[in-house]
């Protein structure tokens, strides 16, 4: 596979190649042939076996045979001389500028050939221009047939437009590097991955320079130190924008805190609050009476707290308890005849019915009854007000609720023994409103209702 690394000088190409291509190849036991200025002793310090796997070339390989790729399916493209001596390359030929720079018989246990890392590949692999024939045809043929030799290639250049387009066009993955100093981060570089030479961007990330890799290679081949100096009067716009953003947020937070800070008479939500009462220094101390603890209750009756002389505690109003205190009152219906209204109620305790009564009974006991609407009334006893609705609990299973029926003419009631019958009286018209009844009556209730109805009719 042929991959490419593109970037201007100082963009991080050498760092990317060493850290993410050369080292992984060596760890997998693969040979690396390159013109990068690697420091072999530094690699040997990591693993002594890597000395045999690193080959750094500074001169083109000599010619040791003929190249013929016309019938590679039947014979080898590299035809090695057996009766002639190797011929050195001319002085104007650059490293990796001939097909013999890519000849190697090395193979690992998996049958893989070496990894070729060609730095500044636009020099040995130029495109044709006026006065220059460009890259030799044999080299272009080898790149197109590189899979037959089980070899991989990493090409590094500043601009692939200057490389032979026949080679650049078959690059599988192109990685573009750019130093992140434009973002104000000199210790990072931007890495963009493209799907081929002219393919779209498929990945982008920012990688940080790790100093542990710096000792493995020389980034500046003509000097031992870095003499690179940036423009002194130009700073990245993104740095200024970040500084402005931080200053803006600090100011915004401070302003919001000041704007919503509550004053003495205003809450944090802007509502007016009553001013706190001023405490008088001459005010008498207030004593709080606590409930007696369990130990005090066992020892004996609680003693009244001692009060300082000259002070008096105002008496507290006694709690009002109505006759039905501790029980619930429910409305079961209301009767109306000749302008007179009467409401029926039921008293319950712990979810069970206790007894029935009417509004007349409540008035007689000191209550005030006021009907509000159907199934709604209020029952008042002094300061105690009870809202009452038709929510009476059901009786035992299989029995339903029923209203208290009262004969207004005779005073007969369905919940009490029937008084003496009144003869020759028209049957009263009774209108009863009640909640929906539970299905079924017991035999005793049915007999009592029949007795009441017969008395009212007679």
UniProtKB/TrEMBL annotation:
Lineage, top ranks: Bacteria, Pseudomonadati, Pseudomonadota, Betaproteobacteria, Burkholderiales
Disordered: region residues: 280-319
Protein name as catalogued: Zonular occludens toxin
Low complexity bias: start-end ranges: 280-308
Occurrences of domain Zona occludens toxin N-terminal (ranges): 5-222
Coiled-coil ranges (or none): none
InterPro entries for this protein: P-loop_NTPase, Zot_N
Organism: Delftia acidovorans
Signal peptide positions (record): none
